[in-house]
Fold this sequence. Notes:
By secondary structure, the protein is an alpha+beta fold.
Amino acid sequence: MKQIEKEKVVSALHEKFSRARTVLLTDFRGLNMSAMSELRSQLRGASIEYRVVKNSLMARAADGTDMSLLKEHFIGPCGVALSYEDSVTPAKILVKFSETNSALEVKVGIVDGQVVDLAGIKKLSKLPSREVLLAQLLSVMNAPATGLVTVLTGAMRNFMGVIEAIKQQKEEPESDK
């Protein structure tokens, strides 16, 4: 690779590291091409970018970003999963894929500016997706309003029941006569 090409790769990668919300490092030694293609396809389907870059270029691109905290992990072949929106989905996909393909090893990552080890990534992968969490939050926020409506309609229903009972009580003596 020529020097100009290397500089382009480093600047593009630096920009991606700066924008990424989640960056996970993997060791893909031993993955065959079909497994690598399957992994890339799964990640691409979730809007996650997966790059394989020389460690020296990755180290230069990491300068000035949160990725600089992971420089000591740039050993051996490294694949980098970059997510710009969701923090949970890349962890879910990589952990699940590594369980079925032992050749893929998830090393370490950066999630929202914090270094996360393999145990943390596995915990993160067990969280519900963003959509599920938002639905749960909406349900919790909606519960008080639903409860208020139920209470108010219950009072009206009980009042109508009392009026109906009084009406029936007044009609009964007339029918007994």
